[in-house]
Write a structure and sequence with these properties.
Helix content: under 10%
Distance between the termini: 80 Å
Low-confidence stretches: none
Structural class: mainly beta
Strand content: over 45%
Largest sheet: 6 strands, antiparallel
Order of helices and strands: EEEEEEEEEEEEEEEEEEEEEEEEEEEEE
Mean pLDDT: 93
Number of helices: 0
Number of strands: 29
Radius of gyration: 34 Å
Length: about 325
């Protein structure tokens, strides 16, 4: 076996790879097979060409030693994998911890053999530990078997799992491409941002004051306005969110009612930075509020998904 690039014999384990067979022909013309068995772990990126000679006793009768003969050639291309992993809900490299989490991993491959069947396997890795991320005590994996119709192509893997505990975690997708039982390519890089999806801790901190007094104390009256400044962290800039709030009666722990109605507020906004704040206003008839304490409860939504709350009846 010859290495086409160097024109020298290919070495496996430091030794040339050769084969021979002794035969007695029944006819003047015919065929036979030579089998070369060797460790090909270092073959990626190489092209091998078979050189043959025919001998009678010690006399060489014929040879076929053409380095450019495609019929004598076997290619072992370097198969490239490139990936982009995103949270399926946000379609970005950042997601929100939730029970029904789906990470989509779009895998681009180059160098496959058209018409052959491959299997792509993926595992979610916790970037902090470098170990597989466990959901319910089990590593989160996905795999798909496909036939390459062209040398280059793409395939999508989807990882569906309970991500309720993902807050503060960055996941990195590791992939391996198999031909039968043999791994022919891999992409495992903890520092690759394209393979990573981050799930930050979403925090809400609030400061509610009476608009008239500018403090946490107010005089009861027919028209009161409470302004609640809500500070948030960990959002995706450019995405739309909705903040909702409700006034709670601290003494009962239930919603405060004015004229039989709950007092709520709702604000839709698009942050330009991950961290920031919004103001929520609550205007209502507070003529019967003597000796009452009101507490504002807030919830933050991305679409229909609640991604953050601040509901502490004892928060001064």
């Amino acid at each position: 076996l010859m290495d086409k690039a160097s024109g020298e014999p290919y070495l496996a384990g430091g030794k040339q790879v050769a084969a021979e067979v002794t035969f007695t022909p029944d006819k003047s013309d015919g065929t036979l097979e030579l089998t070369f068995t060797f460790s090909g772990t270092g073959l990626t990126g190489h092209t091998l060409v078979v050189f043959e000679t025919l001998s009678y006793n010690d006399l060489e009768l014929a040879g076929h030693t053409e380095i450019d003969d495609q019929g004598q050639t076997v290619d072992y291309p370097r198969i490239y994998l490139g990936t982009t992993a995103t949270d399926l809900l946000t379609e970005t490299h950042q997601g929100f911890a939730r029970r029904d989490t789906v990470i989509a991993d779009d895998v681009v491959y180059k160098g496959a053999e058209p018409g052959q069947e491959y299997t792509i396997k993926g595992t979610l890795i916790d970037k902090d530990t470098g170990k597989p991320y466990l959901s319910g005590g089990t590593p989160v994996t996905a795999e798909k078997t496909f036939t390459a119709h062209e040398t280059d192509g793409n395939i999508r893997l989807e990882f569906t799992f309970d991500g309720s505990e993902l807050g503060g975690t960055t996941l990195v997708v590791f992939e391996a491409l198999y031909y039968g039982e043999a791994q022919v390519a891999g992409h495992e890089d903890l520092t690759d941002e394209g393979q990573s999806v981050t799930y930050p801790e979403i925090t809400l901190k609030t400061e509610a004051v009476d608009q008239a007094s500018g403090s946490h104390e107010a005089q009861a009256g027919d028209s009161l306005t409470i302004v609640d400044t809500v500070a948030y962290t960990g959002l995706i800039p450019g995405k739309e969110y909705t903040m909702t709030g409700i006034l709670m009666d601290k003494s009962t722990g239930t919603a405060f009612l004015a004229n039989g109605n709950e007092i709520t507020s709702k604000l839709t906004f698009t942050p330009q930075e991950p961290d920031g704040s919004v103001e929520m206003a609550y205007t209502f008839n507070g003529s019967h509020l003597d000796d009452k304490a009101l507490v504002v409860f807030e919830s933050l939504y991305y679409g229909e998904l609640e991604i953050g709350t601040h509901k502490d009846i004892n928060d001064a």
